[in-house]
Each structure stands twice: as structure tokens, then as C-alpha cells.
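step 4 of 6: structure.
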Amino acid sequence: MWRQAKWDEPLITEYRGTGRIGFMVPKEDIEVTIEIPEKIRRRNDPELPQLSELEVTRHFLRLSQMSFGVDLGMMPPKSLR
Amino acid sequence: MEVVNSSHYDWGSSLAEAIMMGLRINSRKKVLLPKSINPLHKQVVETWLAGKEVNLVEIPVDQEGRMDLDFLDKLDPTEVSSIYVQQPNYFGVWETEMEYIADWARKHNIVSVAGVSPISLALVKSPGELGYDIAVGDGQELGIPLNFGGPYTGIFATRMDMKLVRQMPGRIVGMTEDVKGERGFTLILQTREQFARREKATSNITTNEALVAIANAVFLSLLGKDGLRELAEEVYKRSHYAAKKMELVGKRKWRSDFFEEFVMSFEKEYNKIHLHLLNKGIHGGLKLGPNEALFCVTEVHSKEAIDELVESIGEVI
């Protein structure tokens, strides 16, 4: 018998984090100046969250606990596309 | 852009769907594709348009490796259904006149489609900001490993304009409230879809790439706004380091600024260089002509590996 977990989970964009990154970008010691042509250079930041690895992991695991799929039980063919 | 669908196989099929959407919107019979488009995407478009009596017109490349905009003035814009631009283009070069192209299309009621590398968008303006009608791209670079061609996901987005959204292929998920007033998500605008409309549906070839799309969402959430910019800057720096270093052994075909990929031309036949690299366990660039190859450098290529590549090419030229 499956009973759905229920978390009061906000959308990931509603989390209020600042300055956090959940992924360490590998960096090389290279001296190159970034010169994007003026006409196309981006001036505003993309609208993405700023969260730690733990916050992101918890968010997606909570969502997965609330969902049902073939890995948990019967999912008849064509019941989803 | 406000509306994103679910979902397509890859960039190529997203592009083909965008062009089909353009044909549904204005019923014109000419489609403009630049020569600087990924040839694999072009093949997908050609396959999908077979039998539709649509005329594919190729926009040539100028001396800077960008789309030749003078070509647009020679056309009758009233015949054109849609125009496509790839940013950065197939040769890695930034298309700098993105805004001009979107404005030109809008002026003549042409559907404008921008194909973008998602990571590069941390550095350049997005298709939405530039005023494009449709954006397409590939989710592969957002945390999906290479896997013999798939599964990947094709990104497809439009502006929140019902003229566009009603012609959009694939499923659209909307946010709503249930009877208890709680937030919920459900499929919306289903009258466009194959259950209701059969062969008249906006598409019958979409697919569920949700697993890949969730991986994309996790990857982007981990990177966040600062991480995405850091990653894009690192890719930019490493590829420019590689291009500069490669000039010791060859010549860059175009001097324009680029992202991630660049075309090198050599005095020697590229086949011989490639074979030598393979013998040393290095997979070289993608051959574009007898003496030309396209090289790609991202955050997975260390400085040491780039140096080794250049040294190895130096041994045979």
C-alpha cells in the first residue's frame, strides 16, 4: 500500500539563498580577458537560485517522495507519455 | 521567455518543430537557415520538411564567420515564413546582429527562431531579451553525459503570446489551485494535442524527456546564477587559451570572438593530423574541409591536455 509523502515544499525559485553555489566549477590558472561584443553582452544575471548542494538535494528528494512511478509500483502502459 | 514545452528529442528536432510552427502561423513557403548552422540540425529540418513544398534558403557567411545580413536585403520578405539564427554559431563565432535580425523579422511578420547554447547565456543576451519569438537548444550540456546520441532533451520556448502558444507543439504544464486552495500543476491547452486533434495536432512527435529535464533542473539549481556565470567564463577562458596556443601550429579561420568552439586551418591535410592524434590517444577536432577542423574546448579539458594537443599537432606539421 502506497501512502504519499507530503512536504510543504516551495518551488526552488522561491528559496531565498544568497551567494551560495552547490557545484564547484573546476578552474585553471589562465589569463584571458573576457571580451564579449558589446551588442550582445549580458548585463543582468539569469534568474536562477543561489543554493547549497544540501538544499538542492533535499528539495529534489522531497519532490521524489511525493511522486509515484514505475520504480515504486504498477504504472500501466500509456498511462503517461 | 515565459512558455516552455515538454519535450523534444534534441536541438535538431526542436528546431524542426519551430520551423513547422512558423509555417502554421503565417502559411508562407520560404524558410531562411544560415550556412553557419549545425549541419546535423539542417538534416533534421530537411527531413521534416520533405513533401511540404517549402523552399529552404541558405544565408551565406560573411568574412567574419557570421551570417551575411546583406543577403536579407536581396529577398522578398513577404514570402519568408521563418528565420533561424544559431548563437554561438556552428563555427563557435558569436552572432553580433541578433537584435537586428529579430527586429527585421518582426517588421515583416516573420517568425524569428534563435538556437542557443544554454551555458553561453550566462555571458550573452537571451533570445527573450533580444525579442525572438521562439528559442531552441539542447539540454545535453546541462549536466548530461555523452551517451551515443541520447537520451537528451530539446529545449523549446516561446514568448507569452497566445498567437504563438496556441501553435506550440508538445505538452504545456500550467500552475493552478486545487479545491483546497493548494498549488497544483496540470496539463493545459490540450486541444492542440493529438488526443483531441489526431493528424491536425500541433505535433505528434514530442516525447517524454522528463528524466533528462529534471537532471537539467538539478544541474542549473546547483550552479545557480553565480555558478553558471563562473562555468561560462571558464569555458570561454579555456577555449581562448586553446585557440591562442593553436596558432603556433595553424591559423584561425576567423578572427571574430567566439565561445567554446573555433575553426583552425592547417597547411597539412587534416586527415593526417587527426590520424597522428588518434595514434597518441587524442581525439582531435571535427573535420570541416581538407585542411580545416572545428575544435571544442570546455571545462572538461585541462590546460595540460590542451598543451599536449598542440604539441602533438606540432609533431606532424
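step 5 of 6: annotate
 - The interface with chain A takes residues 87, 94-99, 121-126, 129, 171, 207-208, 214, 217-231, 233-234, 236-238, 240-241, 257, 299, 302-303 of chain B (CB under 8 Å).
 - The mean pLDDT of chain B is 94.
step 6 of 6: archive
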